[in-house]
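so im writing up the methods section and need the Response regulator record in one place, dumping it here so i stop losing it
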Amino acid sequence: MPEQSLTPVELYGTVPYLGGSATGESIGLTGVIDVDWAARDVWTAARGIDLAGRRVLVVEDEILVAATIECEVMSAGAEIVGPAYTVEEALALADEPVDVALLDINLNGVKVWDVARKLYERGVPIIFASANVNGEHAIPSPFDKAPRFDKPVRMAAMLKALAELTARDASPRHA
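--- predicted struct ---
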């Protein structure tokens, strides 16, 4: 296998601190990570997908996964609502005008079914992602017909699903 060079990527921002604190504190995140060339393909998967004018709610408790999803969805032209890292944050954002939602099933040990129910009642299409969508994180009715992806998610497939769900409406839901 040929040697791959690494590309440094700088990260800056604030993330929820969940390590022993329930106060909603945040910690700063500053650093550099190395991304190999294969990972760069993930960041370019949006080519050919047009989500312009769409608002996508992202609910994901892993900061780097959320950041990757955010980059991909924004590169396809959509606006991100969130990301929400906890069920409480997701419930608050579920009232926002959105066209579609990407939900991790298990947020720090808490299932997202209340968030899914709130979005479902509003008619917002949902896509689920989880490390185990068919096992311990099986999706209950009435959400069991929603698209679902096992982690690690193939971003190109998720973007295609987003495009298909939002294409069913001629105009953005939030307009």
